[in-house]
Amino acid sequence: MDHARSQSNRRDTLKRLAALGLVSAFGPLAGGPARAASKLVMGVIYVGPRDDYGYNQAQAQAAAAIKKNFPNVTVIEQEKVPETADVQRVMESMIEQDGASLIFATSFGYFDPHVLRMAEKYPNVRFAHCGGLWTAGKHPKNVGSYFGYIDECQYLNGVVAGYTSKTKKLGFIAAKPIPQVLRNINSFTMGARSVDPSITTQLIVTGDWSLPVKEAEATNTLVDQGADVLTCHVDSPKVIVEGAEKRGIYVCGYHVDQSALAPKGYLTGAEWNWITPYTTHVNDALAGKPLQNILRGGLKEGYVKTSPYGRAVVAAAKSKADAIKAQMVQGDFVIFQGPVKDNTGKIVIAAGTQQKQTDIALEQMNYLVEGVVGKV
Amino acid sequence: MANPDAALRWQDRIEAVLVPAFALVVSLVIFGAFMAVLGKNPLDVYLFIYKGGFGSSFALRDALARAAPLILCALCVALPANAGLMIIGGEGALVLGGLAAAMAGHGLVLAPALVAQAAMLAIGMIVGGAWIMLAGALRQWRGVNETISSLLLTYIALALFNQLVEGLLRDPESLNKPSTPPVGDAHMLHAFGTLELHPGLAFGVMFALIAFILMRYTTIGFALRVVGGNPRAALLAGLSTTPLILFACGMGGAAAGLAGAIEVAAVHGSANASLNAGYGYTGILVSFLARHNALAIVPVAVLMGGISASGGMLQRRMDLPDATVLVLQGVVFLAVLASESLYGRFGKLWRGVRRAPSVAVNEATA
Fold first, then answer.
1. In this structure, are residues A155 and A187 in contact, taking their beta carbons and an 8 Å threshold?
2. pTM of the entire structure?
3. Separation in Å, CA of B273 to nearest CA in chain A
4. Which residues of chain A have pLDDT under 70?
5. Under DSSP, is residue B171 helix (H, G, I), strand (E, B) or coil?
6. Is B221 helix (H, G, I), strand (E, B) or coil?
7. With a CB-CB cutoff of 8 Å, which residues 241-280 of chain A face chain B?
8. pLDDT value for A7
9. Could you give the domains of chain A?
């Protein structure tokens, strides 16, 4: 089977290379990138393994869906590419050796300088970067950012956790105290405290995106301190979810559905739904439309989703979370609604002020809300 | 052939090429068998390794770009190894050298480009050198095993690096990817030549050449090798071992620090977590494969760079996981280590001349 596939792959490759030769021979005659194409080679680059039960798997699921839904799109993938000059080489070799004309650079650290440099060098190739850094006037037109408001799902995680917790102590394991992560910690805590204001979230920062040993230690520490629902923001929540299950407590997932790792204790999870921006970029490329530089959305736009409820989730939690989710899908729910106090008692969002998802202030978040035990 | 010494020297040289080549062939056969078990055609795999790593000017450039930091990191292992020290902490010197270079570059943002670039590279070398000297000092004065201390110092270096980059030295503009302030595009080192080669390559090759000449043709190099061969004999001969060992560590650390400085000055433009990409560890492998010979490090690093460059082709065309090239590198490493026992035995086959293997090893390592 495999052999047959590699044979046909080679044939396809030869065809592609021949086609590439033709394109480059007649390229100057046919005008630029804004041209409808019937075929497309799309490259996807991951910083970690594709099956990490986390960040990279969420991206790989979208790539797999494209492979399935678009028979005329060839998807090539490369995993564990570090954020060094290596990723520039990988992008170049996808473009030069495989004929890719749309590249998904999925790690945040790929953007500056790597994606920017390649985008300048290959103005006819489309680059889609996950993270939301593209700025009009400053960055090349053939680069786009896509990102999702996953804090909505973390808020819902918090609501379900709030109903489930008996000890009223929750635990959050975070990689780095950067705005994106703080936003999740705060949303999770605010969701839980909307159920019961006496709830606190104990925060542990590990210091890096993938430190399985530290994450396992943090899991045990939090359980020992009395936390009975955990969630996290690290690249692969695998050890945290498994650790929580082993210790007999509950856990909310992150990035992808991890229910298979904790059949008893998995409550729900905040998941990416990258298939939405991937499909948009692929359709635009096939139709020859210009690249959309900024693609963002939350539950409403289908950029994020929640895992199905686990068996430990009580009915009251489901109905409350579903009601809030319905509001979010309508676009009527604002998480960061003043007054919001940080955990030192300072007002960080004044009463009557609403910071909606697109608010730039949220991107510069540098505080932990009331109820989080920990320091930035 | 009249002079038996010359004959022996030639035999050593031939062995120095033949034995690693033989090890390489054996490892390719083992790896091919492994691929066959996985249901892939080994010939296809070899073809893609060749194509992806060496088969076109594009692939070659890819291999050379990856080789650049490896050369310098391998020197961080090879130079102390010649003095009898097993230093494996190049990664720590790399990140701290990079951090120091980034801060120097930022501080000299108004200076002429050449001044800023020279300062960045120099300070990177000084900081990296000082860091590895620390491991040498711990060994000479406190009796701490340098392999362990250099490894542990790497963890300290990374913690220090993260603490500074995410705290004191953080550019407030770098929101979601904490970094030091940028050194500025105008002050960065740029790719050179028609192949757009990585600027680190020139520095790496230069450093390797200097290290080779130093080791082979100077009295310091000779003294270092004596210290490495037998420290007691060196003491007896009146050599002051401590300064020599610190010098070797300093040179090695300077190479790794330079690698970090070049990564900042040529690739990243500031110091951030991306600097910690594991070059220091791959450098250990390269140095062992090159048998700690500074000159041999260059082609070995290119070979390793090519193998990792071909990893992409294997993933994309043959649906093999990323770990495939790691398996190949591991098999190569084991085969080369195992082949060490072959040195000095070919002569026996050819002419029935029996030689003490230790002499052969010393000559070849030099």
1. yes
2. 0.79
3. 9
4. 1-36, 132
5. coil
6. helix
7. none
8. 43
9. 35-148+274-297 (3.40.50.2300), 151-272 (3.40.50.2300)
